[in-house]
Fold this protein.
Amino acid sequence: MKFVSWNINGARAAMKAGFLDWFDATDPDVLSLQEVRAEWRDLDEVTRDALTRRHEVCWFPATSKKGYAGSATLTRKGLGWKHEKGLGIAAYDVEGRMIVSQRGDLTFIAGYFPNASSELSRLDYKRAFSRDLAAFVKARHARGEKVIVVGDMNVAPEEIDLANPKTNRKNPGFTDEEREDFRGYLKAGLRDVLRERNPTTPGLYSWWSARGGARAKNVGWRIDIFLVSDALVGSVRDVQIHPEVKGSDHCPISLSLDV
C-alpha cells in the first residue's frame, strides 16, 4: 500500500500548477494533503470529479478562518478506510488540522501540524498540540492499533534535517522546545523510518524558502515526515522524499508498506 503526503500550499493554486496530472500518474492508495486552504465546494466540478474517480475524499477545511490551513485524506475506493475529522479537541479541529483514518488495526493520522509562527507567537499552542497528539498515539497503541503519523510537522528534528542549523537555532521549526516535542512522538512508540535508514545522509529536504533560490541550491528543511509504530517498521518497504515534484514550496513524501 502506497501512502503519500504533500503540503500543497493551497488547493486551487496546486490545481493550476498541474496537481491533477501528478495525482493521476502517482495514483496513491492513501494521500494526505495539507494546507488545502479551501472548502470542497470551492473546487471546480472537473477537479472534484478527478479526485473522486478512484478515491474517497475526506476534506477538512478550517472553520476558524477562511482560506487558512485545512487538510484532506484521500483513500482508494474499496480498501475499507473509515475517516474521522479531527482529534476531538476544538482548538485544533477548528483549524482543520488532523484526520484520523482507520482500516482494521491500522490507524492513519495525517494533517497539518501547527507552525510556531513569527516571534514564536504560537509556540505554546504548538506545544500543547504535540503533547495531545503524543497522548492520542499512546492511547491508540494501548488499544493494539498500529499507527502511521504523517504531515507537515513544521519541525526539523535534528541538525542534519536543515541546511543552516546554527543560524536557525531559535527560529520557528528548530527551537529546542519543538525538537523536544518531536522526541515526544518517538517516546510514544513511533519511529522516523527515513532518518533511521539514512542516518548520515544530508540534503534530504522537503521544504524550501521562496527566497534566494533556496530550492535550486537545496537550502532546505526536512519538516514533512512519516512516523510509524514499532510494530510497522519491518513492513516498511520504502520511504522517500520527492524533491523533483514542483507545484508547492513543499514536495511530496511517500511510504510503501506491506499490508
About this structure: The CA atoms of residues 13 and 247 lie 8 Å apart. The helical segments are 11-16, 19-26, 45-52, 90-93, 123-142, 176-187, 193-197. The first helix runs from residue 11 to 16.
